[in-house]
Write a structure and sequence with these properties.
This protein has helices at about 1-10, 25, 85-90; strands spanning about 15-20, 45-50, 55, 60-65, 70, 75-80, 90-95, 100, 115-120, 125-130, 135-140. The protein has about 160 residues and is an alpha+beta fold. The chain has one domain: Deoxyuridine triphosphatase (dUTPase) (Deoxyuridine 5'-Triphosphate Nucleotidohydrolase, Chain A), CATH 2.70.40.10. The strands form 4 sheets. It has a 4-stranded antiparallel β-sheet. Strands 4-9-7 form a 3-stranded antiparallel β-sheet. The longest helix has 11 residues, at about 1-10. Residues about 5-10 have low confidence and may be disordered.
Length: about 160
Amino acid sequence: MIQTAVMFSMNNNRIARFEKVDPSLTGIPAQDIILPVRATAGSAGYDIRTPFAFTLEPGQSTAICTGLRCFMQPGWVLMIYPRSGLGRKYRLRLDNTTGVIDSDYYFSQNQGHIIVPLTNCGDKTLTLAKGESFCQGVFLPFGITYDDHATAVRDGGFGSTDAKK
C-alpha cells in the first residue's frame, strides 16, 4: 500500500524542474553545478550542492551562488533549509531563516538564480568541498485569500516583493 502511494505521488504530482543558470550570469562553469536530487524515494528534500569549496569560520557569513534555478507550476513554492547535520554540528543557519523561492522568481532578470545566504553560528570552522550537499529544497503547495488581487510582476530576488512598493 505504501509503495503504491509513493508511486502515485511520483508519477502524478511532478510540479518542478531544476536547471542551471547561464554561466555568463554567474561566472560558475556549468560542469561545476550539480542538479539537486533526492537521496531516497521517501526524502522530501532535494539536496543542493555547492559548486565550489568554501570555509566559514565561527561567526562568519557568506552567500553561496548555487548556479541553480527552478521552474515550478503556479501554486507551489520551493523552501530552502540547511542540512540538518550541518545545523546540528556547526549551527549553520540561513540568514533569511528559511529561503522562499516563489514560482515567478524563475522569470527574473537574473534567471531566478538561487543564492543561499549562510552564517556559521557555531564555534567550529566549517569547510565544505566542491559538490558537497549544504542545504535542501522542499516543494510545498500554497494557497491565497479570496480577496487576493495581486497583479505585480517580479524582477528580482531578496526583498523584491516588498508590499510597500
